[in-house]
Amino acid sequence: MTFKANPEEFLLNCFKVAIDSADPRKSLASFLPSLPKGKVLVIGAGKAAASMAKAVENEWGSKVELSGLVITRYAHGLALDCIECIEAGHPVPDDEGEKAAKKIYDMVGNLNKDDLLIALVSGGGSSLLSLPCDGITNEDIKLVTKELLKCGAPITDINIVRKHISKIQGGKLAERCRAPVHALIISDVVGDRPSDIASGPCSPDPSTFEDALEVLERWNVNVPKNISNFIRLGIEGKIKENPKPGDSGFDRVYEQIIATAMNSLQAVKEYAVSRQLNCISMGDAITGEAKDVGEVIAGWAFSISQSDNLGIKKPLLLISGGECTVTVNGDGRGGRCAEFLLSAALKLASFQDNSLQIYGVAGDTDGIDGVSPHAGVFFTPKTIEQCKKLGINPQKCLENNDALGVFEPLNSVITTGPTLTNVNDFRALLIL
After folding, report:
1. Cα(first)–Cα(last) distance of the chain, in Å?
2. Which residue among 260, 283, 314 closes a domain?
3. Which residues contact 203 (CB under 8 A, 6 or more apart)?
């Protein structure tokens, strides 16, 4: 198969390459430390927690006394030999997650200096590892999370709030542990900062209570009274701040990023080049409102397709990663990747150039785009024309946050099921 003979299949293969390059079962073992003298406690949280734990068991299960607990999203679990795996709610935390987080909190507190804590951290851990501070309920956290998600707040803002109302996040899990901590992290955030991934349970927190209040005020969130009172007491100095960078307690904490969106983009670029295709990576930091980002990248792709004066040789694969946001105004099931790609397809269609040969794909590497059962979607130069023939108004679908109302009837969806990894979104436009 070549990219010219079957552009859609080529793009779907690119998406698979991006996912496979981030699979911890293929790479995590090389990042494990030397075997310790004492026992090893393995804890974790995130969409990749089960696959990461499986990788630890495969490498160390016969060599050392292993025990522990990891929390992952519903339908993301695996059968493990000596590490317990519990499934819980995401992106809104639930009671199962709270109970499991409390169990992890207690386990970590029982370790001594001769033991070793292996912390497996991946995207989704902020919701899954939800243990409210005293005076706050899990229901309070659910309410504020729903509000922040609905208004389109970026995950970095959401996590600033989460860190300050959790007993575990914002470095407090590592702070509680007397043993050395070896954290292995799969990054799903722009910048790959450990403190931002799963709200940084093993990372000192540079943000403050004042920052948390600023986020809530900027997004005009209806804050539960327990949370607003707690943050106010923190600002007044009556509740201890999260541990900060430079805290000597973190001298025994080692954090290592084992997979990133940039790694996946590089793998896709190598795949494209091996098939004699030019490739430009726009990097892994493309963020913003999904529909706006779709318009901008589609506009650039159109310019490339029309000009030989840009110093860019065609055919070309234009790839990017990052995490867009969606401000929910309608009642559709779009997902940020589907919304991005519908906006891009509409932008390209607006040029009314029947000669355009531009194909696109966008998907979340965790296998779930928004609340739909799909990982992502793809389009061809005929997508908008085809959906109009079916009586579908693609612009109205976009306005209603219902991109799937375009892609599902055309069978232009990608359904992978849970991939058990998560390095955020992958997007590609193929310009022939």
Report:
1. 16
2. 260
3. 170, 171, 174, 183, 193, 194, 195, 255
Domain range for 305 is 262-431
Tell me the two tokens of residue 36.
């310790």
Strand partners, 183: 119, 255
Q: What percent of the chain is predicted at pLDDT more than 90?
A: 89
Collect all residues with Cβ–Cβ distance below 8 Å to 101 and sequence separation of at least 6: 45, 71, 128, 129, 130, 131, 168
* Residue indicated by tokens 């795996």: 85
- Whole-angstrom distance, CA of residue 340 vs CA of residue 362: 8
Find, among 419, 378, 431, the residue nearest to 124 by Cα: 419
CA dihedral over 327, 330, 336, 339, signed as positive or negative:
negative
Structural domains in the chain (count): 2
Using CA of residue 76, residue 78, residue 80, residue 84, what is the dihedral sign? positive
Token couple for 279: 């490739």
Radius of gyration of the chain (CA): 22
Instruction: Evaluate if residue 1 carries a pLDDT over 70.
Output: no
Is 265 in contact with 321 (CB distance < 8 Å)? yes
Q: What is the pLDDT of residues 86-128, one digit of tens each?
A: 999 998 899 999 999 999 999 999 999 999 999 999 999 999 9
Q: Compute the residue count for the chain.
A: 432
Number of H helices, E strands in the chain: 16, 14
**pTM of the full structure:** 0.93
The whole-angstrom separation of Cα 236 and Cα 376 is 45
Q: Are residues 191 and 254 in the same domain?
A: yes
Q: Record the tokens describing residue 163, joined without a space.
A: 């860190």
Average pLDDT of every residue of the chain: 95
Tokens 């529909």 found at = 291
Token pair of 233 as six digits: 């007491």
